[in-house]
Specification:
CATH class: Alpha Beta
CATH topology: Ribose 5-phosphate Isomerase B, Chain: A
Radius of gyration: 16 Å
Number of domains: 1
Length: about 160
């Protein structure tokens, strides 16, 4: 699988070590930056480029996922989610890593590098990568609603109306 990865300064050490871990597991890793430590770097462009890489690969029929890191993972998730077609999930434990894939078919995982040890991070990412989308009708239906809104702003009728 091709893995697109991006971070900010807070996740740079994790990103570097994680890339080695992923390559050893047989994945192709594309690093979208940064390439050196800068305590005032701006993560949005790095994360958006990683998300764009995931979409470009998937559009071309390449099996791809993305990983974005930051101090908390919140801003990185928000940036990645601005890319049309991305479903980035902030993950903090094994259950959220697994459910992001099983129920939401998330294609990007976001993790707070300051919230976890390296071993925890690798466990979360490995679980995310190895967990398939369930394909259950209720999850497919809900994802379709998100896609519809993203495409044209349509929503199901408001039951309160």
């Amino acid at each position: 699988m091709r893995i697109h990865i991006a971070t900010d300064h807070a996740g740079l050490d994790f990103s570097t070590k994680l890339q080695e871990h992923l390559r050893a597991a047989g994945h192709e890793v594309i690093d979208h930056g940064p390439v050196s430590y800068d305590p005032v770097d701006d993560y949005p462009a790095f994360c958006i480029r990683a998300a764009q890489g995931v979409i470009a690969d998937r559009t071309a029929g390449v099996d791809a996922l993305g990983i974005v890191f930051g101090g908390s993972g919140n801003g990185e998730q928000m940036a990645a989610n601005k890319v049309h077609g991305i479903r980035a999930a902030l993950v903090w434990n094994l259950a959220t890593a697994e459910l992001a894939r099983q129920h939401n078919d998330a294609n990007v995982i976001s993790i707070g590098a300051r919230q976890h040890t390296y071993d925890e991070v690798t466990t979360l990412i490995d679980r995310f990568i190895e967990t398939p989308f369930s394909g259950e009708e209720r999850h497919v239906r809900r994802i379709a609603q998100i896609v519809d809104f993203e495409r044209d702003g349509s929503l199901l009728p408001d039951p309160r109306a």
